[in-house]
Amino acid sequence: MTTSASSDVLDTARRAKAAAAELAPQPSGVRDAALLAIADALRARTGEILTANAADVARARDNGTGEAMIDRLTLTAERVAAIAADVAHVVTLPDPVGEVLRGSTLANGLEIRQIRVPLGVVGIIYEARPNVTVDAAALCLKSGNAVLLRGSGSAYASNTALVGVVRDAIGTAGLPADAVQLVPGESRDSVKELMRARGLVDVLIPRGGASLIRTVVEESTVPVIETGTGNCHVYVDEHADLDMALRVLVNAKASRVSVCNSAETVLVHAAVAGAFLPRALSALAGAGVTVHGDAAWQAAGDAVLPATDEDWAAEYLSLDIAAAVVPDLDAAVAHIRRWSSGHTEAIVTRDQAAARRFVAQVDAAAVMVNASTRFTDGAEFGFGAEIGISTQKLHARGPMGLPELTSTKYVVTGDGHIR
Amino acid sequence: MTTSASSDVLDTARRAKAAAAELAPQPSGVRDAALLAIADALRARTGEILTANAADVARARDNGTGEAMIDRLTLTAERVAAIAADVAHVVTLPDPVGEVLRGSTLANGLEIRQIRVPLGVVGIIYEARPNVTVDAAALCLKSGNAVLLRGSGSAYASNTALVGVVRDAIGTAGLPADAVQLVPGESRDSVKELMRARGLVDVLIPRGGASLIRTVVEESTVPVIETGTGNCHVYVDEHADLDMALRVLVNAKASRVSVCNSAETVLVHAAVAGAFLPRALSALAGAGVTVHGDAAWQAAGDAVLPATDEDWAAEYLSLDIAAAVVPDLDAAVAHIRRWSSGHTEAIVTRDQAAARRFVAQVDAAAVMVNASTRFTDGAEFGFGAEIGISTQKLHARGPMGLPELTSTKYVVTGDGHIR
C-alpha cells in the first residue's frame, strides 16, 4: 500500500477540471454513446474485472473481514452484467443538461434564460461496494460532469480495473478519459487532499457511515452534499388505523435494517398506547426486533430494554428500535425536532388535520403520511437513478437524481443593451 | 465596545431556531401583515432611528472614516422612508413557500409532492449600510425564515435601533420577535461563533469584501452561499459591431465602478484590435478609466500601463481595467476560465456560432450576449428583490431572490403503503 503524495491528488483534480471543460458542451448523444460503450466494455472485459476483484476478496479474507462485508465486495459475472445493465438504463433517462428552467423577455427587450449546466467536477467518497464506482461514473457522465472516485481501500484493485474499463470506453467514444478518474492512494491522506481541492472540485458527496460524513462536512473547504444518515421516526397518532400502523411500523423497521430509510424510533399517542403497544411488541418480536422503550413501553412488555438519550439519537441500522409514548402530536413533533437527522418522518393517522399539522411542522427531507419510511428512495420516487439521499437543506434535499447533479447558468441576450 | 461571550451568540442562534419552527407553518397572510407592520413602525419611529444613527456617524467621524463610507452609513428621514417602502414592496412579491415544484402519483398509488419550505435560520454577515439590516430581515420573513443579522460594528447603534423596531412590529403582528435578531457583540469573535453554529444556523450568506467572503467560506462549518466577487470580462469578438462593443464596454466598466457586476477586463480579438483599440482607449480615457494592458494595448496607447497577473486577477472596483488582445475565441475562453470569478462574462458579436460557443464554454453565473455585464442584478432580472448574487454552483447561482431562500420537502401520502 502506498501513500499518495499531495501533488498526485491535486494533479488528478486538475485533469478532471480540464476534462469537465471539454465534457460540458458535448451534446447528450455523445454522452449517451459513451455510456453504451461502457456497458459493452464491462460485458466484454468481465474476466479481467473478476480477476482484480478476486485479489481484493483474497486480501479481505486474509485480513479477517466478516462475511457480510466480503459479500458486498464480491463481484460475479452476474453482478457485472447487472452493473452494465444499470449503465445502459441511465442512457434512457432524460438529459438534465440544457433544460430551460425559467425564461422571459424583459421590458427593455433583454431575453433571459436560466438553463441547467453540469456542476463540473464531482468528487464521490464511498465505501465497500465496487458497483458504486460504475454507477456514480455513469450518473456523472450523463449529467455532463467529470468525476473523481475515492472508493474503499479494500476494493482498490476492483475499482482500478473498473475505472480502467470505463476510461478506455469513453476515450473510444470521443470523450476525455480523464472525465472519470480514481483518486490515487489508499490512505486517508488522499481524502484530505480531495477535501482541500477547492476551485478544482465543485462538490464532494460522501456516501457511507455517519463518521465519514461528519468528517467530510466538518473539514472540507470544497462544498459538500451531506447524505444518508437516517434517524427516522414512525408516529402512531391518536386517530391511527392501528392495523395500518402495525403494518407500516414493521415494514419501516424490519424490511431491511441496514438502510438509511429504515425506522429507528416509534412514537405512540397515549390515547392508543393501551391498544397498540401489546400488538406492536408482539409483531416486532415476531420480526426479531429488540425494543428500547420508555417507562410506558417497559410496563407493556418484559423484553423491553430501558431507552436512554443514546437510543433516541441512534441510527441503529440493526434489529433494534427505540420506543416512546407521547401525550399528543405536539410532543411527537418536539421529540422528532430534537432527535431527527432530517431524513424521513412518518405519521399514521386518519385525521386530516393531524396529518396537515405533522407535515407542516416536521422538518425533514421527506414526510410520509400513512406510508412506510422505506419509500424515500430515488427508484421508488421514479427518478430512475439515485446518487444518494441528501439530508441537508441547500441545493438538494431527499433522493438525488440527475437534476441534482447540475447547476444553472443565466444566459442573457440583447442587441447592445446598456444600463 | 464589548466582546460577546461564546454563549451569547449560541443562545441567540438557539432562540432563532425555536422562532423558525414557529414561523415556518404561518400562512403568507400573517407574514405579509408583519411586513406591513414593520413598514409602518419604521415610518412612525424614524426619530429614534436617526438619533441612533447620528451616534454611529459621530463615532465614525471621530475615527477618521472617509466621506464615502460616512455617506453609506448615514440615514436620513428620506432614506428611512425608502427602506419602509422597500419592505412594503416585498409584500407584493409572490410567496415562494408552499409552491409545489413537482408532483405525481406513482404506479402503486403513492402521491408525491415536492414543496418549497423555508430554509430555517439564515445568517447574514454584512458591512456598512444599515438599510441591508431591514432588507435582509424583510426577505427572510417573507420566505418564512428566521434571520440572524451580523452587521458592521460601525453601524451597531443604527442596527440595534432598526432591529428593535422590527422586533416590536412583528411581535405585535403575532410572529415571534426572535425571528429577527442582531448577533450580539461587535468583535470578530461573534462572526466566528456564528460560523460554528452548525445545527442551529442553516445557511450563512456573507455580503461584503472578498476577504470577508473568503474567511467565511474557509472557516465556516455552517453551509455558506458565496456571494459577490466579480472579476467580469467583456470579450469583443472578431465579428463584433464595434460601435456596440464600445458602448457595452464603457457601460460595463464605468457606469458604476464599485459594484460586483462591473467589468474588470476587456479581451479583444486580434482581427479587430487595429480598429478597436484606439477607439476603446479614447472612450475609456474619456470616462476616466486607466488601462492596464498587454503588449498590444501598450503599443496602441502611451497611457497604457503594463498588465501583470495581478491585473488579470484583480476585482478593481475602481476606474481601472485590464486589457488584452487574444488570437481567437478559444483563447478568450481560456483566459476567462483561468481568471474569472464566475460572476458575469460578456461577448459582443454578430456571429451566432461564436455566441453559442462562448455561452456553452464559459463557466459563470451569467453569460451576456451583446449586453453589458451590469445587467446581472435581481432587480434588472425582474426578481423584485435580491439578497445577494451567488458565485457558487450549489443551491443558487446568480442573483438570489425569494425562491433561493427556500429549501424543499417531499410529502408522500398513501393509505398504509409498505415496501
Automatic annotation (TrEMBL), chains A, B:
PROSITE patterns: PROA. It is found in: Cytoplasm. It is an enzyme of class 1 (oxidoreductase). CDD domains: ALDH_F18-19_ProA-GPR. Its main location: cytoplasm. Its EC number is 1.2.1.41. The keyword Coiled coil does not apply. InterPro entries: Ald_DH/histidinol_DH, Ald_DH_C, Ald_DH_N, Aldehyde_DH_dom, G-glutamylP_reductase_CS, Glu-5-SA_DH, GPR_dom. It catalyses: L-glutamate 5-semialdehyde + phosphate + NADP(+) = L-glutamyl 5-phosphate + NADPH + H(+). Residues 4-285 form the Aldehyde dehydrogenase domain. Keywords: Amino-acid biosynthesis, Cytoplasm, NADP, Oxidoreductase, Proline biosynthesis. Belongs to the gamma-glutamyl phosphate reductase family. Catalyzes the NADPH-dependent reduction of L-glutamate 5-phosphate into L-glutamate 5-semialdehyde and phosphate. The product spontaneously undergoes cyclization to form 1-pyrroline-5-carboxylate. This is Gamma-glutamyl phosphate reductase. The lineage of its organism: Bacteria, Bacillati, Actinomycetota, Actinomycetes, Kitasatosporales. The gene is proA.
